[in-house]
Specification:
87 residues; flat; 77% helix; 3 helices
Length: 87
């Protein structure tokens, strides 16, 4: 059993995080901060609409529901299209 474990480690060497190129770090950090900012905006927009603009909560729910329905429909369509063209 130990033979199997030892042999599996010899084919590739593990890459250390500190050895990644600068461009990989830049793209990773950019993606991280973009994800954080978009999640923050998605949570703050309903509060802004309700408290500053005075939009009713039912309208905010309708807007969010329509946005989620469109996103789900586009995900289904893009998945089908990706399978069809071989992506």
């Amino acid at each position: 059993m130990s033979e199997i474990v030892e042999n599996s480690k010899t084919s590739t060497e593990r890459v250390k995080i500190k050895d990644l190129p600068r461009n990989v770090w830049a793209v990773g950090l950019t993606s991280f901060f973009m994800d954080i900012s978009s999640e923050m905006v998605l949570n703050i927009v309903p509060l802004f609409l309700a408290n500053v603009l005075g939009v009713q909560t039912s309208i905010i729910g309708l807007i969010d529901g329509i946005a989620e329905a469109i996103a789900s429909t586009l995900k289904l369509f893009s998945g089908w299209l990706s399978d069809k063209i071989g992506g």
